[in-house]
């Protein structure tokens, strides 16, 4: 039996919440790169969950959060604030592609505890707001 759009959204939401919780664990363990990576993953998965509600279950196989929302932003009940859209770009830059270890190493050395903590705090704020977009 096929899952309904709501069930698909709940699936995406569940794994997004798990990723957000994992980001907190990574912060407690001092793994700053994976804090921001898991924040990116959490918001990306929530975006894909919303995509399933507004369009269909054929979610795009991309990691650019703003581009995911651009597919259905005209259907949203409210405009995504510009500062959140800018944050999507920032998060998308943290998608770590393991095929590029030099990039991963450079990115890792540029993130400290304060930045990881700030990204996690902002992610939680954005995450809560995004949940208000569920129809």
Mean pLDDT across the residues is: 90
For this structure, what is the CATH homologous superfamily?
Nucleotidyltransferases  domain 2
Number of DSSP strands?
0
The profile of the biggest β sheet is: none
- The gyration radius over C-alpha positions equals 15 Å
Distance between the termini: 23 Å
- The CATH class, by name, is Mainly Alpha
* Global outline: globular
Q: What's the helical proportion of residues?
A: 55-70%
Structural class: mainly alpha
Counting DSSP H or I runs of 4 or more residues, the number of helices is 6
How much strand content do the residues show?
under 5%
Enter the CATH topology name. Answer: Four Helix Bundle (Hemerythrin (Met), subunit A)
Task: Return the CATH architecture.
Answer: Up-down Bundle
Instruction: Kindly give the count of domains.
Output: 1
Taking pLDDT < 50 over at least 5 consecutive residues as the criterion, the unreliable ranges are: none
SSE pattern: HHHHHH
How would you characterize the overall build of this protein?
By secondary structure, this protein is an all-alpha fold. It has a single domain (5-131), classed as Four Helix Bundle (Hemerythrin (Met), subunit A) (Up-down Bundle). Helices cover 70% and strands 0% of the residues. The protein is built from 6 helices and no strands. The protein has helices at 5-28, 32-54, 65-70, 82-93, 101-110, 113-131. The two termini are 23 Å apart.
Which keywords apply here?
135 residues; Four Helix Bundle (Hemerythrin (Met), subunit A); mainly alpha; single chain; globular
């Amino acid at each position: 039996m096929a899952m309904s759009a709501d069930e698909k959204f709940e699936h995406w939401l569940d794994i997004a919440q798990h990723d957000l919780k994992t980001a907190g664990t990574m912060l407690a363990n001092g793994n700053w790169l994976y804090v921001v990576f898991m924040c990116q993953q959490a918001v990306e998965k929530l975006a894909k969950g919303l995509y399933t509600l507004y369009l269909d279950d054929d979610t795009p196989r991309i990691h650019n959060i703003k581009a995911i929302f651009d597919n259905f932003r005209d259907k949203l009940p409210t405009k995504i604030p510009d500062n959140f859209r800018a944050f999507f770009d920032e998060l998308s830059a943290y998608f770590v592609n393991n095929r590029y270890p030099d990039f991963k190493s450079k990115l890792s050395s540029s993130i400290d505890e304060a930045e990881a903590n700030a990204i996690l705090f902002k992610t939680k704020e954005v995450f809560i707001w995004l949940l208000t977009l569920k129809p």
